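ok here's the first one, seq then struct tokens
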Amino acid sequence: MIVFAVAVCYFLISFIVMQSDIKSQEKYNAQLRTQLADKKAENEELEKLVKSSDLDDYVEQIARRELEQGSVVKGKVTGLTDFGAFVELEGGKTGMIHISEVSTSYVKDIREHLQLNQEVTAKVISISPEGKIALSIKKLNADNNGGYQTGRSRQSGDFRQPVL
């Protein structure tokens, strides 16, 4: 009878341990299912982002960060108006050089300084919240000439004058 009692006790202990192991395994499986569901949700969000126009907005934000005030850019003149020139920048963005930012000397007609399809290098002087890019050839040239303006000044015939 003692052998039978020992066998029953052994069986009961084994059953309890096995139940504990099963509960631990169930908890572990539940954690894995939760992690898997989280990853699936992340992937679905990324897929939506890639398929939506949000991706275009994201790319535009990155491009806007690369263009910052003070950076030097190259581009091609795509339009001339009485008030300035429109320049297509590398990367497809469009900037504008106001007539007052073309030269250190007075500019009466922008067409005397710039032509359509001309390659230009300019300095970014501002980017509006709407993404409008203001450019300046004048400020770039002033920076490159150590603070001196080149060309004829309106006030005098001096070739080089300090920038004030």
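and now the second one, same deal
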Amino acid sequence: MVDQNDQVKDAGSLEGENVGSVLHRDNHISEPKGVAEGEVKISEEVILQLASQALQSVEGVRPAGGSGLSSFGLGRKGKTIGGVRVTVDDGVPPTIMADTYISIKYGLRIPDVAWDVQEAVKVHLEKLTGYRVECVNVFVQGIHLHENPEKTEELLDEKVEPLQQDNDTLSTEEALEENQK
């Protein structure tokens, strides 16, 4: 095939030449530039961070703790970060299996939110890693009333004012003394 620069591409069909080489008009052959040999591996920690970011991008979702089995070292192996656990199979092509542990905002339809989580994690991981996502399991472990956890903590931290005693009310010590008389 001849391109605009009058170069013959894929000169591998010529005897003794490599596929992908370029045969120039003056009959010298050049190898493609920038092609390096080797492999690229992405650590599970990086994939966990990416999956956790995708999880947090879904409205009404908060990460929850991992499964109860994981605390005993049972179930699928791997770390849980930000409500996500991943397993990476280094086959060709590499594949990812993800488990997500979430809490959903009260009032949202759980199956719809779970589907949104699956799609967000799958698309985000496939786009940024180039790996194939085999599955995204969603474990709904709770519901929450407020979108951000700080509001819930503020409500829990509010102190109830102690009841003020009337002058007619006796303290516990005074009541004990009265009973002993």
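notes on #2: The first strand starts at residue 8 and ends at 9. Strands lie at 8-9, 22-23, 29-30, 61-63, 80-81, 84-89, 95-105, 132-144.
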